[in-house]
Structure formats: C-alpha cells, structure tokens
C-alpha cells in the first residue's frame, strides 16, 4: 500500500498482518506504527522516495552529469536493497530505518556518481580518486552558524538582514562583539546562545505540541527566520520530523495552504502573468541555485488538482534534499508553476492564491514547461530540476520531452520506481523467489505505478530475459479492471505497453485476478485507499 497520505493507503499494517496471519511482508509509502500480533512485534517498512531522490539528485549534480539516466535509478535501487541485512530480512524488514537516511543518501549518491562516470555522462574532471569520501565531504551539514552568504540580496536596512533574512540570521548566537559591529544591539535578548542551546529550546516547543499540523506550522515559521537552526533541528530529529515536514502531514498543509499561509518560501511562476518572461522572472531570485523542485499542482499526492496550494510539496521536498541528501539550503529552490486549476472549490474561494483560471491545455502546458526549462538552464547551467506531482499524462509528456536535454527527473515516476524496486528485490529475497519467476499485480496504473513497473521490467531484463517477457510478469489493474487490449476502452499511451495480450480475463474483480495470477507481490498505487479487504489479503 504505497498511496499517500496515510488515509489513502490501500490497507493498514495492522489489517495486513492480521488477515495474513503474520505471513505477509509489508511496506507502505507512509509510516505505520509497529503491530503486536500473536506475541510478536511487526515493524512495517516505509518505502519512501526519500531513500532515493536526495542521493540520486546529489550524485548527478555533484559530478556535473549531463542527464539523469534511467540507469541511475536501477543502481540506486540495488544500493538501497543492499543496505538491509540478512537478519533484518528474516524479520520481514525490506527497507532500512529512516534514521540511516543520510548514510543511505551518501551511498546512493556515490553509486550514482560512479554510474555517471561509467556511462560517460559526468563532466567533473578529473574524477575524484575516492568518490565516497568526495561525496561525504561535499554534503551540507547544519552545524554552527557561518558567516554572511556570498551573493546575498540587498536589504533596505543593511544591518537588519542578519536578523530577518533566514539564510543569514544567527539570532541570539551573535556574540556581543558581533552585535556591536553590526549595530544590532538591543534588537534581541542580550543572552548569547550557541546553536545547540537554541536547538534544545525548539525541540522542547515541538514536544509540547501534540498536533502534527501545528508542529508543521512551527517548523515553517522557524524555516522562515533561521535556516541553519531549522536544518539542525530537522537533521537531528529526522525519523520523528520527516512525517511532519513531508508525508503525511504535508498533505494537510496543501489542502489548507490558501487559508494558513504565514511565511514565504520559493518562487511562484504564472503562465498567465509570466509566459514569455520566465527567464526575466528567475533573475529576481537572489542566490545561485543547484537544485529546483517544481510542481504545477496537477496531482498532489492522492488529493488531486490543488493548483497553487501544491506549493507545500516542493518546499517539503527541498527540506529532504538538504536534510537527507546534502544539498546546501541557500542554493535549493522550491517553485510552484501556476497553470490554473480544475478544482472548482479553489476557483470559487476568496483565499485561493493562484490565478482563478481553468487549467491550461496540453499544448500550452508543454510550451510553458519548455520555456521554464530553457530559462533555468540559461540562468543556472548546472542546476538539477526535479518534477513533482504533475498529472499523470503531463508527467510522462514533460519527462519525455526534457530528459535528454536538461539535468532533470520525475520523482513520481523514477524515484518511486527505484524505492519500490529496492523493496521488491528484498521481498523476493525474503520469500526465496527468483526474480525471473516472480509475478506481480499493480492496483493503480498512473505515473507512479507505471514508473515502478518499468523499473521492475528493466531489472528483470538486466537479469537475462527480454523486456517483453519481463512485462508479461506484470498485471496492471485500474479503476476499470485489468489492463488488456480487449476490454474495449482507449488506454493512455503510458498504459499500452502493460496491456495484456495473452487472453488474461477481462475482469474488474481484484480477488478474481489474484486467484488467476497467484502473485508474489501486490502493489497498491491507486491513491484511493483503503481498498484491500480481508478477502484480498487472505
């Protein structure tokens, strides 16, 4: 059950373990608490993309890769899978703990860099002798406060920038001598505290607040005033705070974005206001940029078209690129493209922050995305672009148009594919099933499901079978039933390669399909859970 947020998961961990009498190997896209059953504690795995995208992105950017190749994700999946020990596999765990995220990201980045050099895509020369050490040295670590960031923006009252610009603020960490020299004496409490003391205070604030969404608001307020402290708190408490800064809490934040926006972060670029001037608008961002996460709000998690309310997604993703992958926060930029929305509620809302216009068509969207990519590459030639939460048809179209021309990837398609592939590798290993013998059913046939299926097929082909034979092991099931060439409807292009041609039944009953296929793995990527009942699990 990989659908987000948690409420959309196809089945809960507790039900999965109970209905399978503790026999299933379970991993979800969102965190689930440990389950007690028959005197044993089961620890659900979390197949979160955060194990993949920070490392792949950082490794590709660090060595100046000319593109983000599909092979990067296959190697990343293998690296992630190898991080799980035999003992953990015996316990039913197929992913490492989130507490190991930075180590995993370091290793994934190293593997990505190695792959880039092997494929002739890396431009960094000479090649570092020890790539692992090079990656580790290059990763941002939120420690003590540093000096002024080069290339900072002008500020109306020059001395106040050290208090009000989050990239530069040291807050009460300024020494008495620094406060005198900067003329900021009397503008804050007289106590001098290092970052550890300030971190402890903020951690205390978080512990006193039981509500996850209110914790999210506290963290966004901190991010808006003190970037160094925000990342020190996040990195030191990653297992506890990742579900707050990203899924599942970020879903609540996006739904309420227009009503609860309190601070500013990133850029909003509008088709209706900035078409033809995107390059000019990018000049308003005052810092150099190494990584961009961009969405058009077309399909936010499992919540649908949220328009500019989707900005919480790139902001959250950037936080994980920094905390989990080593990008520097000053050089990381979340961007929301305003392409209109088909959400009638937002179009009628007095609070909505985007253009009250219907979502633009495919042709206009393609041209706007091309203008955006050209503008980014012109302003920041080595910048990595990660596309996030575009509607399925547009996600595939944008990736296809951009992948070979720009340093970019789509995490919903490629990142999800790699992290699920890693879990699949370990799941089959725990079962004792050879990859070549495995059969699987996908419940859901959107961008994430197709991305996972494509990578599994590529891995099986790498193991020795043809891609066509590998695809024959995959059964895709959407809201109308099993994808076949005979069921009588017009399939999207991205589904056609998985449509059955072998006489499989045109069934819309999942249990019937399970009995027919006898799968070794069931993937829930529908975004519409809970849907797996006891009859499905048993």
Give the secondary structure arrangement, pairings included.
Layout: H1 13-19, E1 27-28, E2 35-37, E3 40-42, E4 45-46, H2 53-62, H3 70-82, H4 86-90, H5 101-118, H6 131-138, H7 161-164, H8 176-182, H9 195-208, H10 212-225, H11 227-236, H12 238-245, H13 249-255, H14 257-260, E5 267-270, H15 271-274, H16 278-282, E6 291-295, H17 312-325, E7 332-338, H18 344-348, H19 362-379, E8 384-387, H20 392-402, E9 408-410, H21 411-431, E10 440-443, H22 447-462, H23 467-471, E11 474-478, E12 481-482, H24 493-496, H25 510-517, E13 521-524, H26 534-537
Parallel strand pairs: 1-4, 5-7, 6-7, 6-8, 8-9, 10-11, 10-13
Antiparallel strand pairs: 2-3, 11-12
Helix pairs in contact: 2-5, 2-17, 3-5, 3-21, 5-6, 9-11, 10-11, 11-17, 19-20, 21-22
Summary, kept brief:
By secondary structure, the chain is α/β, with parallel strands linked by helices.
Task: Describe the model.
Helix content is 45%, strand content 9%. It is of the alpha/beta class. The strands form four sheets. It has a five-stranded parallel sheet with strand order 5-7-6-8-9, sandwiched between helices. A four-stranded mixed sheet has the order 12-11-10-13, with helices on both faces. It has a two-stranded parallel sheet with strand order 1-4. The radius of gyration is 23 Å and the shape is globular. Residues 147-156 have low confidence and may be disordered.
């Amino acid at each position: 059950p990989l659908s987000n947020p948690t409420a959309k998961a196809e089945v809960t961990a507790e039900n999965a373990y109970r209905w399978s009498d503790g026999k299933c190997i379970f991993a979800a896209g969102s965190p689930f608490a440990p389950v007690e059953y028959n005197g044993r504690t089961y620890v659900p795995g979390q197949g979160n993309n955060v194990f993949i995208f920070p490392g792949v992105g950082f490794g590709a950017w660090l060595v100046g890769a000319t593109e983000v190749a599909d092979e990067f994700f296959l190697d990343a999946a293998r690296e992630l899978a190898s991080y799980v020990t035999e003992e953990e596999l015996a316990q039913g765990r197929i992913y490492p703990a989130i507490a190991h995220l930075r180590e995993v990201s370091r290793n994934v980045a190293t593997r990505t860099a190695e792959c880039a050099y092997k494929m002739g895509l890396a431009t960094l020369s000479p090649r570092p002798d020890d790539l692992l050490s090079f990656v580790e040295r290059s990763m941002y670590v939120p420690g003590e406060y540093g000096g002024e960031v080069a290339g900072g923006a002008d500020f109306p009252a020059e001395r106040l920038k050290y208090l009000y610009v989050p990239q530069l603020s040291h807050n009460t960490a300024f020494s008495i001598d620094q406060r005198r020299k900067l003329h900021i004496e009397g503008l804050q409490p007289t106590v001098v505290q290092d970052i550890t003391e300030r971190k402890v205070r903020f951690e205390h604030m978080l512990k006193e607040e039981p509500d996850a969404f209110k914790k999210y608001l506290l963290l966004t307020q901190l991010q808006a005033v003190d970037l160094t402290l925000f990342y020190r708190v996040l990195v030191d408490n990653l297992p506890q705070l990742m579900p707050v800064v990203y899924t599942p809490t970020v879903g609540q934040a996006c739904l309420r974005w227009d009503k609860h926006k309190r601070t500013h972060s990133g850029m909003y670029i509008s088709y209706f206001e900035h078409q033809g001037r995107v390059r000019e608008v990018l000049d308003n961002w005052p810092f150099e940029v190494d990584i961009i996460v961009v969405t058009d709000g077309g399909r936010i998690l499992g919540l649908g078209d949220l328009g500019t309310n989707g900005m919480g997604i790139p902001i959250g993703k950037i936080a994980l690129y920094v905390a989990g992958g080593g990008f520097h926060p000053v050089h990381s930029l979340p961007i929301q493209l305003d392409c209109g929305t088909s959400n009638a509620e937002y179009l009628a809302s007095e609070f909505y922050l985007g253009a009250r216009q219907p979502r633009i068509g495919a042709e206009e969207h393609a041209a706007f995305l091309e203008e955006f990519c050209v503008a980014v590459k012109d302003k920041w030639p080595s910048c990595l672009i990660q596309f996030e939460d575009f509607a399925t048809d547009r996600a595939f179209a944008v990736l296809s148009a951009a992948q070979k021309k720009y340093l970019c990837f789509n995490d919903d398609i490629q990142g999800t594919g790699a992290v699920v592939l890693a879990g699949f590798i370990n799941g089959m290993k725990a079962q004792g099933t050879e990859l070549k013998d495995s059969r699987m059913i996908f419940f859901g046939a959107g961008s994430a499901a197709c991305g996972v299926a494509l990578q599994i097929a590529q891995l099986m082909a790498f193991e020795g079978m043809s891609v066509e034979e590998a695809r024959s092991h995959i059964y895709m099931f959407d809201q109308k039933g099993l994808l076949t060439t005979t069921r009588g409807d017009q399939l999207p292009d991205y589904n056609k390669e998985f449509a059955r041609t072998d006489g499989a039944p045109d069934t819309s009953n999942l249990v019937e399909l399970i009995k027919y296929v006898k799968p070794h793995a069931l993937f829930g990527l529908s975004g519409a859970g809970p849907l797996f009942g006891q009859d499905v699990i048993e």
